[in-house]
Amino acid sequence: MSPSLLRLSQGQLNLLAACPRRFQHVHLDQLASPVSSEQQENMAWGNRFHLLMQQHELGLPLTELELASEADLFDVVQSFIAAAPELFAFRPAAFRPAAFRQSEHRRSLELQGYLLTVVYDLVILDAEHAQILDWKTYAKPQNQHWLAQDWQTRLYRFVLAETSRYLPEQLSMTYWFVRSSQPGAIALQPQSLRFAYSAAEHERTRQDLTQLLNQLTAWIDGYTTGTEFPRTEELRGTCNLCQFEPRCQWDIYSSSNPLSAWSDMTDIAEVAI
Ligand code: SF4
């Protein structure tokens, strides 16, 4: 596989950083990950929420059928819009001249032979500032440090800085958390978390990205000649939470045929990541 053909999203960078072997299993071995019915339900809810937000942004009213069948979801959208009026009072008169806003805004950046791709839930660009907005259909996390280090936060601001005329200090990324962590429960008040940006952070991200992508190139080269990507999660003792554990356990602990362990997983309904 030529690295020049490989598109990378923030999700793939997170996977790669967490465990290169897991990245290999998903993206090179193309082994699908089992997803629970609860996860599927949450993903479907999140997808519909994003579509409704996009629909609202385009000024398209919901049909009666949608209103009837998705009343709960519609209520969440409405309470979110009410909680952040500054984001949605976007009629031309309310905004500075030359403001640009778009939902599902896509950008790509070539770096180290890879195509880094981002999709912003909403961008608002004006003469002075560039805002990236992202909707999260779970509760605001208690520990916010991990989100600052998450590749979505880092890559989204990096790509916008690299593909626009804005200085890093003019950029920000804001997450809006619209749903409670309790299954089926709805957060009474959506909450936000804003990450500013700086030239120093931009350069740190460039260095970290360059290092990670160089590693990926070396791992792909090794893979084409039969060397598997390295495992890292086993060192942190979290492999028992990974769906690929049976496969990894085979060559960690056993010289027996792995298929006996791996075959247990083939009975589980799978969907692609
Ligand atoms: S079992 Fe551990 S080492 Fe193997 S893919 Fe999963 S996290 Fe990585």
Explain this structure.
It is built from eleven helices and eight strands. β4 and β5 (130-136) form a beta hairpin. It has helices spanning 10-18, 20-28, 37-57, 64-69, 71-83, 85-88, 145-149, 151-162, 199-224, 245-253, 259-266; strands spanning 7-8, 33-34, 100-111, 114-125, 130-136, 171-177, 191-196, 270-271. It is globular. Helix content is 45%, strand content 18%. α1 (10-18) crosses α2. Strands 1, 3, 4, 5, 6 and 7 form a six-stranded mixed beta sheet that branches. A two-stranded antiparallel sheet has the order 2-8. With 273 residues, the protein is an alpha/beta fold.
Give the gist of this structure:
The chain has helices at residues 10-18, 20-28, 37-57, 64-69, 71-83, 85-88, 145-149, 151-162, 199-224, 245-253, 259-266; strands at 7-8, 33-34, 100-111, 114-125, 130-136, 171-177, 191-196, 270-271.
